[in-house]
Design a protein that fits this description.
Elements: H1 3-24, H2 26-36, H3 55-71, H4 78-92
Helix pairs in contact: 1-2
């Protein structure tokens, strides 16, 4: 048997065999797929929130986002809500100008 023979059989029956494995022995199919992956690649997983916000920043914002529906009336304009939040933050953290 040569590699060309194997390729010919695979071309004819490969998809059927994989489909049967997926049903009958999914663990074996996963092992085969894993064995085909290149061993010299590295995978890096980085958790981010919506819009690519870092996980730490999202964790800080989440309580504020949860609080908004409790404070603002239903149907409030989101742009107006964000203006109020921005105004409140600026007011709370504004620095006193000396001499005034």
């Amino acid at each position: 048997m040569e590699l060309a023979d194997l390729a010919e059989v695979w071309e004819t029956h490969g998809k059927t065999v994989l489909t049967r494995l997926a049903v009958d022995d999914p663990g074996r199919l996963a092992a085969i797929a894993y064995g085909l992956l290149p061993k010299d690649i590295f995978v890096q997983v980085q958790q981010t929130g919506p819009g690519g916000v870092s996980a730490d920043a999202w964790a800080l914002m989440r309580p504020i986002l949860d609080l908004i529906p409790q404070i603002f009336p239903a149907g409030s304009d989101p742009a107006e809500v964000l203006k109020e939040v921005q105004h409140s933050l600026r007011s709370s953290f504004a620095k006193q100008i000396e001499g005034k």
